[in-house]
Design a protein that fits this description.
The complex is a heterodimer of chains A (223) and B (468). Chain A is of the alpha/beta class. Helix content of chain A is 37%, strand content 24%. Chain B folds into two domains: 181 residues, no CATH class; 263 residues, no CATH class. In chain B, strands 1, 5, 6, 9, 10, 11, 12, 13, 14, 16 and 17 form an eleven-stranded mixed sheet that branches. Classes of the chains: A alpha/beta (223), B alpha+beta (468).
């Protein structure tokens, strides 16, 4: 499902110095497999997610998502791939405040080039327990509810891969487990591969596969 | 969910900014629509008067043809120096004492000639002395004068002190059937009131949308009998010819005078003058030909007579169609174009306001745009969303301006009626104002380009980080 080969990414600092961030020789994630990626702050976790999601192009290497090399696609092609095959759950939910819960999910369908499916959007919100909050704006939802809308939105286009970047970081402790359960169950039901980034060891401990970025990233290992 | 809805939701997120931006656009568009509609109204007014049903206006030679038309048709400006009544009679077919028809050379192809005498007003509205035949003209194609109340003043002596009132005059002055009024000398209200000459309203014209809505019509013979309009005849009858009815040109029954008002006297023709003559060519001379041929021949006769009259020292002739067109093209259109230019500039300024309004929101929207990009929206898509916002703001503002513009015109309707004679309302519409719609889309696309470009260039990683 996901395969990284000799992926390198570096940034040029304002003073001209080149700062290597990612240098992964090999990494793979099977279809519908669920894993956790842990690592210290600044180790490049978010950058890696951006590279996999096609938001950032690596300097070199191959990033194969469902058979397509993201690294060698044009930007519009990467956008289309991201819309169709990759779901995102952000740390800060990133719901658009002007849109209702249902519209936020429909927004996730708006960029695939296909017709939006209100029935599926409604079903997803029903699955995350928000069937009575469809017309509520994010400001009218609790933090936990907002993150559940974000989960529903990430699954709207039946992605092959879900990238979750510290999804529980802003959720109170009581709701963290519920949210993780929701994400894992949803990915399981939809047969979506999950790469979840977290700092929470108790969450990481629930996954069969836990990868420490410093161990797969030669930049991190060097540090 | 399409791009329009995304754009609409974004606008809803900033209600105050969006409303103010729409408002500025609405004001600009309102001005454009008001100018276009007003111009259409004025143009319609001119066009209505372009086809008053007669070929020539013949009047005094002291002024220009334009002044002759303006004073006769539009009731604007000072009347021309009058022409002798005998000159007017050259356009009439008459009968001699034996009842045999007499056709002067000038009257050979004339279908009808109606005299106009000007020089008085009532409360600022022009008093037009004429004959009932004036109301037989079609003031617009296939449209004749009609009366909302009453009827035309009588052609005979009983109508000399009667009047017909234009619709707007009746509305503004309150004159109704049976009311009387005394004309004021001159074209302004400050002149001497002819108190001794009271005219009774016997008819009120239905609205015509022509300047005649703003005029009062009295019998020409009544006009002549107002003090100062025709010199007093000598008691023993200085006139070389017997008194005649000017409509039929037949001898007046003097016995009727006995029953008339005391001031009603016979006035010899050589003491009378008319301000203008409205002449239509055609009639029996051409009736044997097909209608279109007859029309062409009548037009040709009018053209020929136009040249002959203008070579004389007594009078001049103007062709209303040509003069009205000239007035429209030389005076009205350029003024309108200048106004239009200014209002279009206003819309452009409003468009720049839209650009500034959207652009100023862009910094706060980096996160929103980055989220859409992360969800798969391409750079072109987010650019289109911003352009859609610009177009929506412009079209909503434009629609509001469209309504506002017509409301302005409707509010200005009393003044428009006063100056053009055309009645306008909230629903007065000119198809040219539809140019505003594609114009706004183009304008919105242009002014929306800069903020859209800003959205296009938004860095997704930095935009997402901005939310953290």
């Amino acid at each position: 499902m996901l395969r990284l080969v000799n992926v390198r990414k570096s940034y040029v600092e304002p003073n001209g110095n080149v700062l290597p961030v990612i240098d992964i020789e090999s990494f793979a994630l099977a279809a519908a497999e669920q894993m956790v990626l842990v690592g210290r702050s600044g180790s490049g976790k978010s950058t890696l997610l951006h590279v996999i999601g096609g938001i950032t192009r690596p300097d070199s290497g191959e990033v194969i998502v469902d058979g397509q090399d993201v690294a060698h696609l044009s930007e519009p092609q990467r956008d289309r791939l991201r819309a169709q095959k990759i779901g995102y759950v952000f740390q800060t939910f990133n719901l658009l405040p002007a849109f209702s819960a249902l519209e936020n999910v429909l927004l996730g369908m708006a960029f695939t080039g296909q017709r939006a499916d209100p029935a599926r959007a409604t079903a997803l919100l029903d699955r995350v327990g928000l069937s009575k909050r469809l017309s509520h704006k994010p400001s009218m939802l609790s933090v936990g509810e907002q993150q559940r809308v974000a989960v529903a939105r990430s699954l709207a286009n039946r992605p092959k891969l879900l990238l979750a970047d510290e999804p529980t970081a802003n959720v109170d402790a009581g709701n963290q487990q519920n949210l993780i359960d929701l994400i894992r169950q949803s990915c399981h039901d939809e047969e979506v591969a999950l790469m979840l980034v977290t700092h929470a060891t108790e969450i990481a401990a629930q996954f069969d596969r836990v990868e420490r970025l410093e161990e797969i990233n030669r930049v991190g290992a060097a540090v | 969910m399409n791009l329009w809805k995304i754009a609409w939701r974004s606008l809803q997120q900033r209600p105050l900014t969006s409303t103010l931006t729409c408002l500025s656009m609405a004001l600009g568009v309102a001005l454009v629509v008001a100018v276009i509609t007003t111009y259409a109204v004025v143009e319609e007014s001119f066009n209505r008067n372009r086809s008053l049903g007669y070929h020539l206006i013949v009047g005094g030679k002291n002024g220009s043809k334009l002044e002759l038309v303006m004073s006769t048709v539009f009731h604007i400006g000072r009347p021309e120096v009058p022409i002798p009544f005998s000159y007017y009679k050259e356009f009439l077919r008459t009968t001699d004492a034996d009842g045999k028809p007499v056709v002067p050379e000038r009257a050979k192809y004339v279908e009808v000639a109606v005299p106009i005498c000007l020089g008085d007003n009532y409360q600022g509205y022009r008093v037009v002395a004429t004959l009932p035949a004036l109301f037989d003209f079609e003031y617009a194609p296939n449209t004749k004068y009609a009366y909302s109340k009453g009827e035309c003043f009588a052609a005979d002596q009983s109508g000399w002190n009667q009047a017909v009132v234009g619709a707007e005059v009746a509305r503004r002055t309150g004159l109704g059937l049976g009311d009387t009024f005394a004309p004021t000398h001159g074209t302004g209200e400050e002149g001497q009131v002819h108190e001794e000459n009271q005219f009774k309203v016997v008819g009120i014209l239905a609205p015509t949308g022509t300047p005649n809505d703003r005029a009062l019509f009295i019998h020409m013979e009544g006009f002549f009998r107002i003090e100062g309009h025709a010199p007093e005849p000598e008691k023993n009858g200085a006139a070389a010819s017997p008194p005649t009815d000017n409509l039929t040109d037949k001898p007046v029954d003097n016995k009727a005078d006995d029953k008339a008002e005391p001031h009603v006297q016979d006035i010899p023709d050589d003491l009378k003058q008319v301000t203008a003559i409205l002449v239509r060519y055609g009639g029996d001379e051409f009736s044997v030909y097909p209608a279109n041929v007859a029309q062409s021949m009548a037009d040709a006769a009018a053209g020929n007579e136009f040249r002959i009259i203008n070579r004389s020292d007594v009078a001049q002739a103007a062709q209303p169609v040509e003069m009205v067109t000239r007035v429209l093209e030389r005076f009205v259109a350029p003024t309108t174009y200048i106004l239009m230019g200014l209002t279009v500039l206003t819309v452009i300024v409003a468009g720049i306001g839209v650009m500034v309004g959207i652009y100023n929101t862009m910094l706060g929207r980096r996160h929103e745009i980055a989220v859409m990009r992360a969800l798969g929206a391409s750079r072109a898509t987010v650019m289109l969303v911003i352009l859609c916002e610009s177009i929506l703001l412009s079209l909503i503002g434009g629609a509001a301006g469209f309504v506002l513009g017509h409301a302005i015109v409707a509010a200005a309707a009393p003044w428009i009626v006063d100056y053009t004679g055309v009645t306008v309302g909230l629903l007065s519409f000119d198809w040219r104002s539809l140019i505003v719609v594609p114009g706004l889309v183009v304008l919105a696309s242009v002014v929306g380009y800069l903020p859209a470009l800003n959205a296009y260039r938004t860095d997704v990683v930095k935009g997402l980080a901005a939310s953290a």
